[in-house]
Amino acid sequence: MFENEIRIRQAEMIREADTHRLARQVRQARRSARRSAKNAGEDRVSTAADSARFARAA
User: Fold this and answer.
1) How many Å apart are CA 7 and CA 47, to the nearest integer?
2) Could you give the CA distance from residue 37 to residue 50 in angstroms, rounded to a whole number?
3) Is residue 33 pLDDT above 70, yes or no?
4) CA–CA separation, 12 vs 15, rounded Å?
5) What mean pLDDT is reported for the chain?
6) How many whole angstroms separate alpha carbon 58 and alpha carbon 55?
7) How far apart (Å, rounded) are the C-alpha atoms in residues 41 and 35?
8) pLDDT category, 50, cuts 50, 70, 90?
9) Which residue in 18, 52, 53, 58 is deepest, having the highest Cβ count within 10 Å?
């Protein structure tokens, strides 16, 4: 009987660990999606070729 209880508890702990791992992965994915969306509009405005066309300010 005792071995059966240990197996049941072990299976419960494995399922709980999997649930926590999945929740952590979801949080990380959401966090990275927010960060990439936040920085999506922040591209380079001008290139080196653009700066060669204009005179330097005094």
Assistant:
1) 63
2) 27
3) yes
4) 5
5) 84
6) 9
7) 11
8) low
9) 18
Close Cβ partners of 29 (under 8 Å, ≥ 6 residues apart): none
Q: DSSP character for 57?
A: P
Task: Give the helix ranges, DSSP H, for the chain.
Answer: 2-38, 48-53
pLDDT greater than 80 at residue 46: no
Question: Which of left, alpha, beta for 4 (phi over 0: left; psi -120 to 50: alpha)?
Answer: alpha
* Distance in Å from the first CA to the final CA of the chain: 88
pLDDT of residue 31: 92
Distance CA 27, CA 33 (A): 10
